[in-house]
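DM from R.C. (forwarded with permission)

"hey, sorry to bug you on a friday — could you get me a structure for this? deadline for the figure draft is monday and I only need the backbone to look sensible"
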Amino acid sequence: MTPGARVQAAIDCLDLIAAAARDSGAAADTIIARYFAARRYAGSKDRRAVRDLIYDVVRSIGDRPANGRGALIGHARANAPDLLALFGGDGHAPPALEPNEIASATNPAPGWLVEKLERRFGAATPRQVAALLGRAPLDLRVNTLRTTREAVQIDGAEPTRFAANGLRTTLPLAVEATPQFLAGEIEIQDEGSQLAAAICDPQAGTTVVDLCAGAGGKTLALAAAMANDGRLIATDTDRGRLDRMGPRLDRAGVTIVERRLLNPGAETDKLTDLADAVDLVVIDAPCSGTGTWRRNPEARWRLTPVRLDRLGEAQARLLDLGATLVQPGGALVYIVCSLLPEEGEAQVAAFLRRNIAFSPMPFSNPTGGPVVNSLVLTPEDHGCDGFYIARLTRV
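My reply, with the result:
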């Protein structure tokens, strides 16, 4: 592909990514993979160059663009003016620029979100948001049911800063082809997620519910922390995600997990036997994903005020559902990979007003410092994805 053809390919993909963000369609990585699957003539260097350009543009444009061409022009004008010379070139290059052609504005976050982020970060907002849009390293969690962190040797991987069983590398690594992965010794998991699981502090021999288990990332970490001893019920409303958990459990040597498919809006029907009987309920709730922009920068294009309101309603409903399962003296841990206060402190405060049998439960801060009732993690301060984590107890 010529340089101009790469620019046009990026524009084509950006059109598809923007449309998917508007319509809740496929993720950017999926769209890019599909695009090149139909264009076998593109070599690996072409695919890599186009992908890197696409993500450079997505990181530059905070608001969902009207089209890919405007987004790329806006990025080029602000960050890479040499790209503009490729418009109107030979071959498959994009058409020449028009006088006064409208381009997308460059900004790190959608305008309507800035005030919300400022409530979290104050004067540090520009620095914190910039870190949210950096490139994430690759974090691994060592499965202590199979081995120890000291025994796992992967070139370029170093212990994570805070997570006791984490490894991190900035080098390219085909994780799923490594002997350690095939043996169930490692899983891909951001250090922030590992810290969230550590804060849950599940005990061996107890009953634990992972209420929004998805494909099982935290379920696996909880099972390892429990030494594969006890009862761990992993629930979700998505059959596909629960099915994908099966091979991961087998590879990791986890045998204590019971998977339950819940009916959306009628989740209690499959949980009646667990009412007031669970030692620990973990709610890794659906959220805006503002803490994961390093990995999913197009998530900024998907979020709208209406969608944020709906997520807030779902979070409140899941908290109330989880509360019905916790036995007296038990714990409920609420986790969101969001840095918006309305999905964090405000959601927990509202829950405590509705559920007077619950109160904040202090825990040791895994990043150091004094005991806390809740914890905010950020890429800037902790080098991991952004999270809000709170631990509550039923008195």
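R.C.: lifesaver. The first strand starts at residue 138 and ends at 142.
me: no worries. Residues 73 and 100 are 11 Å apart (CA to CA).
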